[in-house]
Specification:
Length: 311
């Protein structure tokens, strides 16, 4: 293929790092690639994500892809709205990074070592709700900006700690600054956290096949499919207090033979903002159904049906 694939990305250090790994993998498979930086409204505004809405980081990239300015778009999967875009196809979900959230605190502190009243920065209602639920008396304060800005508020002494996705910190080569990786039983990550979504145009079969065969990881795809089906069925947006994490696990069938199954855990808030947790396992090929079933269970338990960014 003499064609050059134009890979679109946001211009942040994190987005460029993510896109770099995709570009390198495609090059190693013999493709010619070019990286095109697309400015998004999310990069130009300092307003809280909960105000500017879902899709601020992704819709400009998707439009550029649909109208032929680029041939491939690389997104942080968790930033994509759950509604499908019929112009595009998800060509690959590359092997997922560690999906967990991470604490960066002053003086190497862990969550349990932070005294009541300590200030912890996060702009995420999901992280805030789960931090509150620990009952540590933490003072949770709003926070926005890129990874560098957020960690900078700990370094400057403005905050005692911040909570961020481990994957984002690691992709920037700064995992050494993490003081604690938070266990999912305390802090379930955002659906699809740590995963990338690599999209191309629905009619660009050559690009789709190349990207799929080079980059797609079926276990990562199954896990994020279940997590996002749960999110979609709760009608929540990326800013709502909903967490989910699926893993491929070994199980034994009726004859004692090892089979691989998908294990999904979820958390969602009630209208009173109490947290509900539930777990289920299902067939690897039934990831969507598993996500929907767990959402139904959470709704039965009293989870709020969420309406998106203002939730
Ligand atoms: N909402 C912002 C965002 N979107 C993707 C990542 C990086 C982690 C990932 O790729 O899932 C981050 C930063 C964060 O949540 O700390």
């Amino acid at each position: 293929m003499t064609r050059t694939l134009r890979i679109g990305t946001r211009g942040s250090a994190l987005a460029l790092a993510q896109t770099g790994t995709v570009a390198e993998a495609l090059k190693a498979a013999g493709a010619q690639v070019e990286i095109v930086v697309i400015k998004t409204p999310g990069d130009l505004s300092d307003a809280p994500i909960a105000q500017i809405g879902i899709g601020v980081f992704t819709s400009a990239l998707r439009d550029a892809l649909a109208n032929g300015e680029i041939d491939v778009a690389v997104h942080s999967y968790k930033d994509l709205p759950t509604a499908p875009d019929s112009r595009l196809v998800l060509a690959a979900v590359p092997q997922r990074e560690d999906p967990r959230d991470a604490l960066v605190a002053r003086d190497g502190l862990t969550l349990g070592e932070l005294l009541p009243g300590s200030t912890v920065g996060t702009g995420s209602p999901r992280r805030a709700a789960q931090l509150e639920a620990l009952g540590l008396g933490l003072n949770i304060v709003p926070l926005r900006g890129n990874v560098d800005t957020r960690i900078g508020k700990v370094r400057s002494g403005e905050l005692d700690a911040v909570v961020l996705a481990r994957a984002g910190i690691a992709r920037l080569g700064r995992a050494g600054e993490i003081t604690e990786t938070l266990e999912p039983i305390q802090m379930l990550p955002a659906p699809a956290q740590g995963a990338l979504a690599v999209e191309c145009r629905v009619d660009d079969v050559d690009a789709e096949h190349l990207i799929q065969s080079t980059l797609d990881d079926s276990a990562s795809r199954a896990a994020v499919t279940a997590e996002r089906a749960m999110l979609a069925a709760l009608e929540a947006g990326c800013s709502a207090p909903v967490g989910a994490l699926a893993d491929v696990v070994e199980d034994l069938d009726d004859e004692g033979k090892v089979v691989y199954r998908l294990s999904l855990r979820g958390v969602a808030a009630t209208p009173e903002n109490d947290l509900l947790r539930a777990s289920a396992t299902g067939d690897l090929t039934e990831a969507e159904g598993l996500g929907r079933a767990l959402a139904a269970e959470l709704l039965d338990l009293g989870a709020a049906v969420l309406s998106g960014p203002e939730a």
